[in-house]
Amino acid sequence: MLNKLFEPARIGGLHLRNRIVMPAMMTGCGNPDGTVSEDTRAYYIERAKGGVGLIIVEATAVAPGGRSSAFLLSIYRDDFIAGLRVLSDEVHAYGAKIAIQLVHCGRQGPSKYTKQQPVAPSPIPYHGGEMPRELTLDEIEEIIENFAEAARRAKDAGFDAVEIHGAHGYLISEFLSPRVNKRSDKYGGDLSGRAALAVEVVRRTRMKVGDNFPILFRISADEYLPGGLTLNESCVIAKMLQDAGVNCINVSAATHESMDMFVQPSSAPPGCLVHLADAIKRVVDIPVITVGRIGDPLLAESILLQGKADLIAMGRALIVDPEVPKKALEGRLEEIRPCIACRHCIDKIFEKAKISCAVNASFGQEAKCPIVLTQRRKKVLVIGGGPAGLEAARVAALRGHKVIIYEREDRLGGQLRFASVPPYKQVISSLIKYYGTQVDKLGIEVHIGCKVTTELISEVKPDTVVVATGSVPIVPDIPGVQRPNVSWAMDVLAGRKEVGERTVVIGGGQVGCETADFLVTIGKKVTILEMMHDLAIDMGRFGRKVLMDRLREMNVGIHTNTTAQEITDREVLGRTDDKIIRFDAESVIIATGYRSNDELAKQLAGKITEIYVIGDCSQPRRVYNAIQEGFQVGLRI
C-alpha cells in the first residue's frame, strides 16, 4: 500500500532505507555552549528508532556571530566534533542516515546571543529586530570559509551529508532575496549576483568534503512577501546550485516574516507547499524534498507516485510521533498520534524556550521519561475522559496497570470535542480518534454516561484514583445572565443551543474568539465584548495572529476595554470609558472562562490512599498542560 514511500532512495552516493526525511527543526535542547546535550541525543535517537530514512539535525551555527539563541548547536570549532560524533554513531546504530544543517542566522541573530551587531547583505532590519550591519567583501569571504570548514567538521564527525540552510530569512536566504539584498557589488543586483554567495558556499564546501559527500540545500522557493524571492527565480537558482555541486534540493517556503507559510497553521491544507517542490523538480536532475503539513503516509505516497517530489519531509509529524515510519510500514496508520497544527512548538521556540509539543508529552525529554512496566500491577480508576484522563489512562495501561475510565458525557474527548468545532480546528477530532484507538488496543475498560460517586468508587475498589473531571463555565455576575436568550459557548459549539442572527459574545479569550469565528462562518453577525485591552491574550503568538486576522476579515465587531453591565431580551449594555453602549443581540453567548470542576476531588480528599487531581480539574489551562499532567501521573502510578 505504501510501496513508494518505503522504496530505498539515493542522494548522490548516499543510500536511504526509505523516502521519509526528518527535516531540521530548532529544538532549544542544546547545551548553552553549543554542544550536543543528552536531551538532543535522546530526541534524535528516538526518531532513528522510529524508522525514518534520513535525519537532518537542526540548524547548527557555522560562526559565533551566526547564532540565534542560547541553545543553538554549533560547529565552528574542531572541539565540537567529538560530541557530534557520538550523535552520528548513535543514530547510525538504528539504521538511519544523518545529515546536519549548517546556518548563519544573519540579521536574525540577536546581539543578545552573538555579542555583536547582526550582519546582513544590506542594512535592512528584520521585522521587530535590530538594525544589521552590511557585510564587507572580506567578511563574506570569511563566512564562505566558515560554511566549508563546518561541512568538513561534519564529515569528520561521521555525518553522511550536510545541508546548507538557504531558507527562512537566514543569511544565505537574505542574499537571495531582492527584498533584503540591495547590494550593488558582485553579491547583489541581478539574480546571479544575489545567488553568488550560495553558489560560492556550495563550491567551497565541495572542495573541502570531496566529490562523494552529499550536499543538500534548503531553499524558501517562495517567500510569500511583497518584493521577496519568487518561485520562478528559485527554479533558476536551483539549476545554479545543481551545477555548483548540490546533490539534493530541500524545498521549503517563507521567512519569519511570513510565518503562516513557514510553519503552517491548521487552516493551511496538508501538502500546501508541494507545488513548489514540483516546479523545482521539473528543472533539476537531482532529488527534491517536499514539506508542508505532510503527516499522513497516504498523502506522502500519493505525492511520490505523482512524481512531484522524490523524498517527503515530515517535521511536526515526527515531533508528535517518532514512530510514524514504523507504524506506517506495519500498516498501523490508525495508531499514529496526529499533529493538530496548533503551533505550540514554534511558539516555544520564539519565546527562546526549549521546544515542547502540546500532544506528545515525552518530546524533548525522551531519556528522562521512559515508559517502563510496573513492578506492582494496580487497578486504576480514571474519572473523566478528556485529554488529561485519556493520557493518564494510556500511559498507565502501557505500564501494565488495569485501567478503568468513567466518563459522565456520552462520549470521550472532554473539551477537545468543543475545541474541534470552530473553523480549521477539525483536525483536533483526529486526536480524540487516536485516543479511542489506544483505549481499544490497550484493553482499557470504559464506562460512558456514568456519573462517579463516592459509593461507586467504594464498589470498584481501585488502588489508585485519577480525578480528571475537567472544568465548568464561570457564571459572571451580570444582571440578566439567566435569561432564555443567553447560552454558554460550549453548548453552542456542541450544537445544543441555536443562536439568532445578531449575537453578542461576552468574553474575548480564545474560547470566545473561536466561538465568534464559528458563528460568523455560518452567517451570523457577531460582536465580541472583552473587558481586557486585547483579545485572545491566552493564546500562543502565531495561532492568535491567524485568528485575529480572520475575525477582522469577517467583520466581527470587536470592543475591548468593555464590560457587560446588563443583558436584556434584545440587547447587551456595555460600559467603556464611563459610557454605556447598547449592542443589539438576539442571542448572547457567555465565554468568560472556566473554573475547576473539583467537587468530587474535594469529597475524596483523605479517603483514597493514592489519588491524583489533574488537568482542568486542578486548574483550567491548555491541552498541553492536561496531556503533560496525564503523562506524568501515568508514569508515577
Strand content: 15-25%
CATH homologous superfamily designation of the largest domain: Aldolase class I
The CATH topology of the largest domain comes to TIM Barrel
Q: How much helical structure, as a percent, in the residues? A: 25-40%
Q: How are strands sequenced across the largest beta sheet?
A: 3-4-6-9-10-11-12-13
CATH class of the largest domain: Alpha Beta
Low-confidence stretches: none
Distance between the termini: 40 Å
What is the annotated CATH architecture of the largest domain? Answer: Alpha-Beta Barrel
Taking the sheet with the most strands, its summary is: 8 strands, parallel, barrel
Based on helices, strands and strand pairing, what is the structural class? alpha/beta
Tally of contiguous helical segments: 23
Total count of domains: 3
From the alpha carbons, calculate the radius of gyration and give it in angstroms: 27 Å
**Overall pLDDT:** 96
Q: What global shape is seen?
A: globular
DSSP strand tally: 28
Notes on the protein architecture:
It is a single chain. The protein is 33% helix and 19% strand. The chain is of the alpha/beta class. It folds into three domains: 342 residues, Aldolase class I (TIM Barrel, Alpha-Beta Barrel); 136 residues, 3-Layer(aba) Sandwich (Rossmann fold), CATH 3.40.50; 107 residues, FAD/NAD(P)-binding domain, CATH 3.50.50. The chain is globular. The chain starts with 8 loop residues before the first strand and ends with a helix. The relative contact order is 0.09.
